Amino acid sequence: MSHHQQPHQSFVGGFIGIASWVARLVARFTLRDTLEQHFNSTEPLGLRLNPVMTFFFGGIYFQYKLNEINQLKQTLRYQNLPR
Length: 83
Fold this sequence. Notes:
The chain is mainly alpha-helical. The protein has helices at 7-42, 51-79. The longest helix has 36 residues, at 7-42.
């Protein structure tokens, strides 16, 4: 019994792979825009997310920047405590 794939199966699989990669990329940049909008309007912290870093590192880069924001907010909270 032969286990060869039909040519259309390979094409469909490749197309699905590319489509999922594009969808992930669109979601990544949508999240980038949402984060920048939030942290420059609702909570104005001057957040700037590098598009190249977003493209290559995505979630890891976002987590790094969110940790920076958390540290900044904790520092501001500490500085504003009554002494």
